[in-house]
């Protein structure tokens, strides 16, 4: 039988963002106090798992989310650039009508093609880099488990790609909550199962901000 390897894609915890900015790849956005608790709660959930490799997006909120895992398993956090948040034209702005960025006609052309999407990094590009990151993690933890801390849109895009579903979608229908875990099980190099867990569900405060 082929050896089994599991790659867990973990979304970072809640971020301190009182202004409701679409922070994207901007530096300086760290976990809130509740986000730190989320990271600790997920680490507890992983306590009886066979994690031998730990990777993270280079952004602060992801690295902080990975920290309790690093301590628990005595593993270094390997920064993996391919796990970074998706690029977005509206980064650094609030999104919406009223006082949001959509009140300015100059931004409207970026909304014309939701399939690509026209406002940011193409879905196919996101899926390709995330797939490469997962393969690298799978190879590093062959026969064991790896954890990759990333962001909502990259994780959800890869999942849809892996399940042979179209990659364009409504942002509010993503199944990728804060501090959630999407687990990809491989037998050898073949993906055989996709599972989803919310170990920190009790700490999620509604409403959450999709795409954060």
TrEMBL record:
Gene3D superfamilies recorded: Phosphoglycerate mutase-like (3.40.50.1240)
Record SUPFAM superfamilies: Phosphoglycerate mutase-like (SSF53254)
Matching Pfam families: His_Phos_1
One term under GO cellular component: cytoplasm
Record-level Gene Ontology MF annotations: phosphatase activity
InterPro entries: His_Pase_superF_clade-1 (IPR013078), His_PPase_superfam (IPR029033), PGM_Phosphatase (IPR050275)
UniProt-listed PANTHER family: BROAD-SPECIFICITY PHOSPHATASE YOR283W-RELATED (PTHR48100), PHOSPHOGLYCERATE MUTASE (PTHR48100:SF51)
Protein name (Swiss-Prot/TrEMBL): Broad specificity phosphatase PhoE
Organism: Thermomonospora echinospora
Phylogenetic placement of the source organism: Bacteria, Bacillati, Actinomycetota, Actinomycetes, Streptosporangiales
